[in-house]
Amino acid sequence: VRVHLYATFFRSTVPLFSSQEQTTSPKHFNVHVLRITEVSHVPSPVPEPTIVSDPRSLRSDLVKEVSSLVGSTASADTFVNFLVSTTYSRPGGTPLCFLPLNVAGVADPETAESIINMVRHLMPKVKVLTLTPDLLCKKRFAPKKNYESDDLMQGELQLSNGTVLIIDETQLPTGSFPVSGLVEENLKVLEDLIVDHRMQYDYGFYKIPMDVDYNVLILSKKESRFFKTPFRIPLGTSGSLPSFGNIEHKRQFIQQSRMSVSSISLSDEVSKKIQDSFVNMCSTLDAKTDKAALLNEMLIMSR
């Protein structure tokens, strides 16, 4: 992403006074943005497409290669959908095509590292959040206003849109652990990201919700201990990091697919099949099931 920034710069040199001595404020610049134009960049297509660069062929190969690590074609298909997913609209506050994914059955940190390396191999921006009691207690995840310094302190999860956020639960101790410090606040930040795809900027007296567009991936030994995601896949017999062929084409395919999500429209035939399947499913579902959420999940996967 390239950003053209038009702004004024101001460096404060006004002396600060204390009861004992006079000091000068640290030399830092405040940026007051007047106008911002964001330009998204995707590499141009290869001039002479080949059979290998055909989108369907690329996707089929990618699913096959990912399946060698996650253990099944069905899980790999969902994983590729996760990489392609991006939130492009929020009608009524609901993020469209947001696909938070929980990979369950990640037995140890070594297996988690294999999945992380695979994602890093395919995606341009990856943030790994390895959950430990110490991190949850001491590291602030969301931005918070410091009124003494008049600064908005950066949070650990203040990331640019398009980042894959990998939440690794595999290093948490089994059973319960002491809860103190920022644990409750940080878990609420993660819950807001996974459920509403938003982050609350904390200004002390009030909070401002900011929409984000992260791809949230949770790695856990069983089902996530803290978060219930609508999309979850089991990790089968995990292999080594796949050897991706034609990797540049596949990276390009993922990014171009992400940009095309908003332009996809479901045909009448596909929409009718979804409706019919949904009606049939509803007759067998428990009365407590959130049917609206289920329909939204089906539409996301269809896109």
From TrEMBL:
Pfam families according to UniProt: MCM_bind (PF09739)
Keywords of this entry: Nucleus
Transmembrane segments: none
InterPro entries named in the record: MCM_complex-bd
A cellular component annotation (GO) from this entry: nucleus
Principal subcellular localization: nucleus
Compartment annotation: Nucleus
Record flagged with keyword Nucleus: yes
A biological-process GO annotation: DNA-templated DNA replication
Top-level taxon of origin: Eukaryota
GO molecular function: chromatin binding
Keyword Nucleus appears in the UniProt entry: yes
Family note: Belongs to the MCMBP family.
Name this polypeptide is given: Mini-chromosome maintenance complex-binding protein
Taxonomic lineage from the root: Eukaryota, Metazoa, Ecdysozoa, Nematoda, Chromadorea
